[in-house]
Amino acid sequence: MPAVDKLLLEEALQDSPQTRSLLSVFEEDAGTLTDYTNQLLQAMQRVYGAQNEMCLATQQLSKQLLAYEKQNFALGKGDEEVISTLHYFSKVVDEVR
């Protein structure tokens, strides 16, 4: 990265071609930095939204797994092994979030 001359306050008060040139470089960099940080913010907001959605989805999945034993299946008597497995799976899903 090439060295950029310092823009001293005393020089900034003068309206010279050198001051204008340095000021335009700083303005351009400030604009580039603003664009970059806005894009970074948008990416972070997407990740935050995805994390929230994932949390809600895993909560719903866990509840749905636990709801199996409350279903009244005509042929579902003796489903203790299935219920136990779904309870365990629900616990694992809860640990993921």
UniProtKB/TrEMBL annotation:
Residues 8-96 form the BAR domain. This is DCC-interacting protein 13-beta. It comes from Camelus dromedarius. It holds the Pfam family BAR_3. GO terms for biological process: signaling. It comes from the Eukaryota. GO terms for cellular component: endosome membrane.
